Amino acid sequence: MAKTLADVREISRLAYGFIASRALFAALELRLFGHVAAGARDPGALSAATGVPKHRIETLVAALTSVGALVREEGGLVNAPAVGTYLDPAAHAYFGDYYRLQIGRQIYRDMMRLDAGLAGDRGALAHEEMSGWLSDPEEARTFSDAQHAGSMGPALMLAKRLDLSGVGSVLDVAGGTGAYSIAFRRANPGLSATILDLPAVIEVARGYVQRAGLADSIALIPGDAREVNWPGGHDLVFMSYLLSAVRGDDIAPLLQRAYSALRPGGKVIVHDFMLDETRSGPSSAALFFLSYLSSNPDAVSFTAAEIAQWTEAAGFVDPTEEIMIPEITMMVTATRPEPP
Predict the structure, then answer these.
(1) How far apart are alpha carbons 72 and 42 in whole angstroms?
(2) What is the rounded average pLDDT of the residues 315-328?
(3) What is the DSSP letter of 53?
(4) What does the alpha-carbon distance between residue 280 and residue 275 come to, in Å, rounded to a whole number?
(5) 164 near 193, Cβ under 8 Å?
(6) C-alpha distances in angstroms, 273 versus 32, 63, 243, 285, 319?
(7) % of residues, the chain, pLDDT over 90
(8) DSSP label at 40?
(9) CA-to-CA distance for 69 and 29, rounded, in angstroms?
(10) pTM of the model
């Protein structure tokens, strides 16, 4: 259930929240949490490690301790438990680059144009949809590298959860750097995958697939999923974070393309941000939906039940819903029926 604001101080925390975000992104750019973990436990040592004057580091450290990212102990500064696990570059579970690159450098910047998106002022948008944004090779690499950092953990988790023993061929639509295709292939050596994504993104994916040693089993198709032909005969079509990023009118045609790309009995999995049935949360999903409006006034938010209904309208049967990343994403799985 969404929390109700009951005090003006709670309104203030909401209004000032962007300053805390910037403090986090600045610390990540400086690799500050890594320096703390390596033994730089006071502002003087952090100043020496980062090259930032001590008085500025003291101000940043005060902000980070005030929001709980750093903790003052008798021996000096230490990372908060979650920070040490996920935001220290030396940590096994590190994915600070997702926050640093995609959220800090790109989405934060683009949200300055949210008013234009809400007004439908296309001349003042951050950019024209994600396809326009990711046509730039530099932006595509920044976005894709960050997304890979954020996606590998969920991809490995999903590869363990899904029974893909009978799946020979996966079409990974808007598959980005191939995090999910790589995880699926490693967990199921007999599987082959095809990633379809925008040309600049596919160039980034090529490097990840090659470094994974899977170039022989993961094919790459450059193009806008709404425009290029999808190869057919697949056992699974996987669509992650695609439907939230396109125009509402694009959703039905994309699901119809998924239907056509599957063999009878094949399945589609839609993984995306999804609201609960009251459309009051979860907060992370709701805020991500909102972020798309800064570049795409025609993007829509949706619930899992709505996705299930849309798959049925495209001809699929037996849609099921399940949580993927708690409080953020869900999955809807549906089947292309066998002929009678």
Answers:
(1) 9
(2) 96
(3) -
(4) 7
(5) no
(6) 31, 30, 9, 5, 17
(7) 88
(8) -
(9) 15
(10) 0.92
Question: What's the average model confidence in pLDDT over 93-117?
Answer: 93
Distances (CA, A) of 214 to 181, 200, 207, 218: 10, 20, 10, 6
Across the chain, what does the average pLDDT equal? 94
pLDDT in tens, 179-209: 999 999 999 999 999 999 999 999 999 999 9
Q: What percent of the chain has pLDDT over 70?
A: 98
Q: What burial class does residue 186 get, using C-beta atoms within 10 Å of its C-beta: 0-12 exposed, 13-18 middle, 19+ buried?
A: middle
Which residues pair with residue 234 across a beta bridge?
Answer: 262
Cα angle value 198/326/269 (rounded, 5°): 45
Q: Are strands 329-335 and 70-73 parallel, antiparallel or unpaired?
A: unpaired
CA angle 14–274–179, rounded 5-degree value: 100
Domains of the chain by range and CATH? 8-92 (1.10.10.10), 151-278+296-335 (3.40.50.150)
Give the largest CA-CA distance in the chain.
Answer: 74
Per-residue model confidence (pLDDT) at position 248: 97
For 202, the token pair is 């596919």
- Terminal C-alpha separation, the chain: 44
Residue 82 predicted with pLDDT over 70: yes
Retrieve residue 181's tokens: 């295709």
Average pLDDT of the residues in 271-297: 96
Q: What letter does residue 296 receive in the DSSP assignment?
A: -
Element (H, E) at 78: strand 76-79
Separation between Cα atoms, residue 223 and residue 215, nearest integer Å: 19
**Residue 58 tokens, joined:** 């003291």
141 — pLDDT class (breaks 50, 70, 90): confident
